């Protein structure tokens, strides 16, 4: 059986806009000479910080791999090492709708005391995992139907009991 793989990036228009507008303001200040601080130092610092944030969002991605052995995730660059969970460590796994802001406080690598950890980039559908240790985490997906289909196939072919339809 083939491996399920999904790579997600922050591509929402409002994120791009929230980075672009401050860039325009900073560079307009530098071009027109209307800067605050000595010799535009504060504008230079602002442009470096904005550049760093833009690069961070550009390279940030969530990778999910699922196979007959388990699930592997990584939220680069926040996690340099892949996080791996074997099927025998999982109590339940199911695809569900969730409310990113209400349950986790938004998107990204998030933590909630009641819902556990979330790895999400966009949307409101994810793979909810509850481990036998009691830990919970949710992995966001942009391919809901493909993920559901893969999990059903995986459950039927490999008798993985923790996968719920």
Please describe what this structure looks like.
With 165 residues, this protein is of the alpha+beta class. It has one domain (1-165): Pleckstrin-homology domain (PH domain)/Phosphotyrosine-binding domain (PTB) (PH-domain like, Roll). The protein has 4 helices and 9 strands. It has helices at 13-32, 41-59, 100-104, 144-158, and strands at 4-9, 61-66, 70-76, 83-86, 90-97, 108-112, 116-120, 125-131, 136-140. A 5-stranded mixed β-sheet has the order 5-8-9-7-6. A hairpin with a 4-residue loop joins strand 8 and strand 9 (136-140). Helix 1 (13-32) packs antiparallel against helix 2. The model has no long low-confidence stretch (mean pLDDT 86).
- Succession of helices and strands: EHHEEEEHEEEEH
Q: Give the beta-strand count.
A: 9
Rg, Å, rounded: 20 Å
CATH homologous superfamily label: Pleckstrin-homology domain (PH domain)/Phosphotyrosine-binding domain (PTB)
Q: Mean pLDDT, rounded to whole units? A: 86
Could you give the distance between the termini? 19 Å
Largest sheet: 5 strands, mixed
Number of helices: 4
The low-pLDDT segments are: none
Q: Architecture, according to CATH?
A: Roll
Could you name the CATH topology? PH-domain like
Largest sheet strand order = 5-8-9-7-6
Shape field:
elongated
Structural class: alpha+beta
Strand coverage percent: 25-35%
Q: What's the structural domain tally?
A: 1
> What is the CATH domain class?
Mainly Beta
In percent, how helical is the residue content? Answer: 25-40%
Secondary-structure blueprint:
Elements: E1 4-9, H1 13-32, H2 41-59, E2 61-66, E3 70-76, E4 83-86, E5 90-97, H3 100-104, E6 108-112, E7 116-120, E8 125-131, E9 136-140, H4 144-158
Parallel strand pairs: 7-9
Antiparallel strand pairs: 1-2, 2-3, 3-4, 5-8, 6-7, 8-9
Helix pairs in contact: 1-2
């Amino acid at each position: 059986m083939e491996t399920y793989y999904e790579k997600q990036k922050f591509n929402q228009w409002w994120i791009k806009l929230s980075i672009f507008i401050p860039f325009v303001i900073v560079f307009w200040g530098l071009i027109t000479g209307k800067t605050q601080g000595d010799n535009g130092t504060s504008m230079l610092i602002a442009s470096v910080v904005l550049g760093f944030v833009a690069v961070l969002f550009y390279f940030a991605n969530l990778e999910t791999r699922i196979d007959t052995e388990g699930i592997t995730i990584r939220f680069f660059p926040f996690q340099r090492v892949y996080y791996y969970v074997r099927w025998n460590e999982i109590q339940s796994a199911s695809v569900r709708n969730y409310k990113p802001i209400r349950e986790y406080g938004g998107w990204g690598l998030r933590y909630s005391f009641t819902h556990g950890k979330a790895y999400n980039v966009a949307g409101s559908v994810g793979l909810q995992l509850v481990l036998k240790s009691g830990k919970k985490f949710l992995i966001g997906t942009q391919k809901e139907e493909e993920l559901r289909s893969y999990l059903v196939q995986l459950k039927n072919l490999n008798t993985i009991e923790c996968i719920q339809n």
